């Protein structure tokens, strides 16, 4: 979507961090923007900071009925939606083996299930007006580079990457592009995730490491300016990029990872009958990819 002037974007987690960076850049490019966030205090601050055509909605993105109401409100205010940014997310620094059911449900509900909620709610609206559009799903460099200390977070970001790659293949026929945003360290408030943890998911082995939160606050001060990330997102939309990598920091790490993956394949000739099926599958994927890459 090269011409974004006058287009309407809906951004979850839009009141701070990467979401707010996107909003600033989109507005500067002449877009109308809806920012949705669970924290009203951040929405109020963002509304004061943003200069342009912007509408705010306080919402819990895990609430599917609330998402439907937000979509209806967006149409009432702006008439259409062209760009959906499933950006809201949280973090939890725990290894998988030390995590609880409540930890899993909390992080998966926001980082993965809510992405599907956004797609299920807004993609039909984008299809309906026939003007094309774009979906940006925020993952992380954790979608490629796993670590030991944020296990559930990493799992959700791998999932968002896979969801996005599949979605791109299915939406190309409707002139809707799909990108997966994989940022590194950003100046954001994700270190405040514990503030929005539901009470019913705090029952098992739950403590807040306040010293750790303070350390994370200091770490995030070293991150990339969210506006710079937003500029790269806008460019990614206009160029219909599948992957939007905002940080050069991880390039060599990913290069090494890809080499390791290829090297791990067995050095054998594939079985011809299986390859007949794989050739057919790959032809279908290639055709879908051609349509996806042709989105304008």
Describe, in short, the structure shown.
With 296 residues, the protein is α/β, with parallel strands linked by helices. It is 49% helix and 11% strand.
Can you walk through the features of this model?
The structure is a single chain. The longest helix is centred in the middle third of the chain and has 29 residues, at 101-129. This protein has a single domain (8-293), classed as NAD(P)-binding Rossmann-like Domain (Rossmann fold). By secondary structure, the protein is an alpha/beta fold. It has helices at residues 17-28, 40-49, 64-78, 101-129, 151-171, 210-220, 226-238, 251-263, 272-293, and strands spanning 8-12, 32-37, 54-58, 83-86, 133-138, 176-181, 243-244. It contains nine helices and seven strands, in the order E-H-E-H-E-H-E-H-E-H-E-H-H-E-H-H. The protein starts with 7 loop residues before the first strand and ends with a helix. It is globular and about 60 Å long. Helices cover 49% and strands 11% of the residues. Helix 1 (17-28) crosses helix 7, helix 3 packs parallel to helix 4 (101-129) and helix 4 runs parallel beside helix 5. It has a seven-stranded parallel sheet with strand order 3-2-1-4-5-6-7, sandwiched between helices.
